[in-house]
Amino acid sequence: MHTTTNPQMGLLDSLMTTTPANDFLQRLDTVLDWKPMEAALQAMYPAATGRPPCPPLALFKMSLLQHCYGLSDPQCEELVADRLSWRRFVGLGLQDAVPDETTLVRFRQRLRQHGLHEQLLGLVNRQLEQKGLILKTCTLVDATLLQAARRAPAKGDKTGGDGEAGFTAKAGQAHYGYKAHAAVDQTHTLIRAVTLTSANVHDSRGFDTVVRGDEKMVVADKAYWSRARSQWCGEHGIADGILRKAVRGEKLPASTLRANRLLSAIRSQIEKIFCWWKRTAGYRRVRYLGLARNRLELEFKSIAWNLKRLSTLSKA
After folding, report:
1. Could you tell me what percent of the chain has a pLDDT over 70?
2. CA 150, CA 309: separation in Å to the nearest integer?
3. In this predicted model, what pLDDT tens digit does every residue of 192-230 receive, in sequence order?
4. Residues 6+ away with beta carbon under 8 Å from 131
5. 8 Å CB contact between 128 and 163
6. How many other C-beta atoms can be found within 10 angstroms of the C-beta atom of residue 284?
7. H/E element holding 170?
8. pLDDT tens per residue across span 37-54
9. What is the crossing angle of helices 291-315 and 120-130, to 10°?
10. Element (H or E) spanning 173, and its range?
């Protein structure tokens, strides 16, 4: 549903309807109902504070554009001002000023203050469930490393780096930063839930946060397997698709190895999301300092992926 800051379009605004359309943004405006999102965002502005200088939904849509295309605040401001299709998607008329980078920074701060930095994906996913796109047949679980916004501090330096980032090692290489944990609905590779931790937190600790417990099956790699987790799946009526790992001094039977190979092929589908984040959306490293700021960035990156998938599925 298209939203504009000025419902009475002027003569200049009528020219926007004759400009070439951005098919992706045009589909999003029609297949997604923005009213629930607008209501949640508008609740951040009590009546006592007066009318916000820019509609929160316009700022939200600008943030989505940022994370779909890997843009900084100044770059997003410049492109919304320059591209009529982007201005139309955001809901700004030609006579409206484009929000500047300071306004975007304050908008993100307000989202964190009101706890929406961990709820935005859920607001979008409610509509995806209503459309029958999240089927809950099988959930894929995995995590990926993200570099910190600053270099790792030198040994003994307590003031450098990011105080909430952490160290870990993968394939013999040291990493300093964060770890994004994701649960993905396997049918349409839509992200159901995410969370962010420092890089030194083990993958398996994100499992309980992102798995909803309403799916029929869970598939994850060996890092997530434990007898307790297998028992939890049984108690919740969930098929346990977590790859088995050998106990010290014992070898896995051939049947388990075959099952692991089959499950690994299913689990690998989640990698396309991490690949899109890092190669297309520029999400190899976090942009901010601190867990809360970067948690919001992860939320927007997840919404961006789901909306990309929604746009593709709506064409089918």
Report:
1. 91
2. 32
3. 999 999 999 999 999 999 999 999 999 999 999 999 999
4. none
5. no
6. 14
7. strand 166-170
8. 999 999 988 766 566 678
9. 20
10. strand 173-185
Place of tokens 């098919």: 23
Pairing of strands 190-198, 173-185: antiparallel
- Cα of first residue to Cα of last residue in the chain, in angstroms, is 20
**DSSP summary character for residue 226:** -
Burial of 52 (0-12, 13-18, 19+ CB in 10 A): middle
3-class SS at 200? coil
Segment holding 198, helix H or strand E: strand 190-198
DSSP 230-257: HHHHHHTT-EEEEPP-PPTT----HHHH
Would you tell me the crossing angle of helices 73-82 and 56-69 to the nearest 10 degrees? Answer: 110
Task: Inform me whether the pLDDT recorded for 7 exceeds 90.
Answer: no
In one-letter notation, the amino acid at residue 37 is: M
79 CB burial (10 A radius; 0-12, 13-18, 19+): middle
Q: Which two tokens stand for residue 203?
A: 């993958």
Length of the chain: 316
Token readout for 208 is 């309980």
Q: Strand 217-220 vs strand 190-198: parallel, antiparallel, or unpaired? A: unpaired
- Check whether 2 has a pLDDT greater than 80: no
Rg (CA), the chain: 22
